[in-house]
Amino acid sequence: MLIVQKYGGTSVGDLERIRRVAGRIARYRDQGHDLVVVVSAMSGETDRLLNLAYELCPDPSPRELDMLVSTGEQVSAALLAMALKHIGYQAKAYVAFQIPIKTDALFGKARIQDIHTEKIRRDLDQGNIVVVAGFQGISETGDITTLGRGGSDTTAVALAAALKADLCEIFTDVEGVFTADPHIVPKARKIDRISYEEMLELASMGAKVLEIRSVEFAKIYGVPIHVRSSFTDEPGTMVVEEDKSMEKVLVSGVTYNRNEARITLHGVPDQPGVAAKIFGPIAEAGIVVDMIIQTSRPDGKADMTFTVPRTDYQKALKVVQNVEMDLGIEEIEGDKDIAKVSIVGAGMRAHPGVASKMFQVLAEHGINIQMISTSEIKISCVIDEKYTELAVRALHEAFHLESPVQEE
Amino acid sequence: MLIVQKYGGTSVGDLERIRRVAGRIARYRDQGHDLVVVVSAMSGETDRLLNLAYELCPDPSPRELDMLVSTGEQVSAALLAMALKHIGYQAKAYVAFQIPIKTDALFGKARIQDIHTEKIRRDLDQGNIVVVAGFQGISETGDITTLGRGGSDTTAVALAAALKADLCEIFTDVEGVFTADPHIVPKARKIDRISYEEMLELASMGAKVLEIRSVEFAKIYGVPIHVRSSFTDEPGTMVVEEDKSMEKVLVSGVTYNRNEARITLHGVPDQPGVAAKIFGPIAEAGIVVDMIIQTSRPDGKADMTFTVPRTDYQKALKVVQNVEMDLGIEEIEGDKDIAKVSIVGAGMRAHPGVASKMFQVLAEHGINIQMISTSEIKISCVIDEKYTELAVRALHEAFHLESPVQEE
Q1: pTM of structure
Q2: Could you give all domains of chain B from N- to C-terminal order, each with its CATH number?
């Protein structure tokens, strides 16, 4: 099999761990597999480099910032290849420009556009284990780019797609994807198989196991991902195409997100073009809006509520205050202390009663729902932040997520 | 003027120093100069990276070792460019592959073969200060190479040559080139101007101000070098083509080297091919021999003495012991506690009395000379190590090096 493996920062956090990772890779090689290994920076290294930059100046230039932080993965890749050679395995380390891994020029959040596989294929044919510095790319003009936090996952999946690998294994410091945060729900259960779609909903909700773009990539190219711990040999969670067995599972997991804030505009004139006049300036300010809800009032005006990242709360308030007079908005109010609690499951498509059950469970626990948003396989409710744990636990229990299969 | 500047590891040793270097560069820019700035790794960083590698395995692969340590300069270059932009100057940082600076594939001691200047010229034309990571290159196969310790000097001089720069300034933590080590000779004087040839002899003798290959490069391409301190605004030492004024200076400086050991072979058969049978195996063992002296004895045999790096002393002894029987050598003995003391000066060419004066000065101080070797502008004597400081001080005084010009 051709396997692409990715080891996160904790897995290569020190020399002893790098040795252990080398040992694990060697066992795979001994079984006859071809291996391409993507590594993150040693844990703490990216932050150390970022701190250097921000201590030097509050506004480091994006091009040089990428040049700076990309060294973290370069160091890990070089060290892992050395460790492999030291125990008698052929290995070659690469950084992005050498392969090359081509991206656009959006420093700090570049997107992979093309990966050349000739060098890697030739090295594999010659019996090498190929080690690749994750998280980085090279733009058309030859500048070093980075893919954003968690970008090494994307590097691994993109390489797996480009090489048509049989499997992409993401080794991390958790055992897999869980039905809920085990810190909140002690009974949370490791999920054996989950669909890309469900994983996307979970990932975007803050289940920080897999970077969301890597899942999108895997979905597009049909790359099977195995998320697992680098500290055990236990299997983790397979992220794959949805199949029949998954449809039987009503709800796969419960997640939450405490990183958002709510802003409500009361008495917005209900006329064409108003939404654009509100959300245009917000987008221009670089603020990403998540949920938007608009309700009409009997007086011909509307109330509009939306959520933004909590760190952008003050900035977003100022933006809407700037258009308040102009648009004739009656009142602006907001709340930073909110949480978004979601249930995710491919089985929801076929079972209409899931949403109402969620609302009922929250109501039974005296939790008021401030906003609701739904997708085909997800239902999210915005609630008062202080009820987060209670809500997650109650939903986990109500949907019987502690047992492997819950059928209605 | 187009000036290439190089700042060493101490000069960019922390963020405050990087800010200060940025300030210095800004003053040059304000004067209207075009600037290409080469930086070393922050002091301690290269050693930190090397320690990581050698702690991981005693025999790190050279290719990956270069990939690893080259990150040190990449970090400095990125930070310096950020610092320049922060104070309002246009700047662009580059690593070797981006320019590219092409080298051969001798990892750890690569030689620069070609430097493309198009990108740099374009950036300069657009008003940028160009910051280049020193010490590194890229091989024909796209591997990252390094030029060896002190390689950033070579990067700077090679860039100055390729760009036909008006001047190459090497900023370091000393004020320039001195007539002797100021730690040994308090009266040692900073030399204002020195020829490439003299500098080469001084550099190879351990005056660690300038990397020797950078001086060779400068000599070939006629690049004027200004070695100066990054902590003051005082002028340092100009390293330039030899001119009339220099010929008047009998001796420019006194240097010493305590890193060698002596090996003597007594009673070597005095016949053709013997030297090759001795020095062939030594070269094959990777040992660099410095001085070699052979003297014939009345009995038709010869005594042969040579010096090797002190760290290779035991290895070299073993090599000659292996051929001892075979060649019929009578006895092998050696001494690790030796020092080589040298006087260097372009004026020696025209003044035959310099050597005899050196021998006389050493004799007057009771210092026995074990070996002598001479070049056109240098005389070296191997002496007992314990007399090193005494010999350096006595020679410095005898040749009046404390005063700017000493004529016979």
Answers
A1: 0.84
A2: 2-173 (3.40.1160.10), 244-408 (3.30.2130.10)
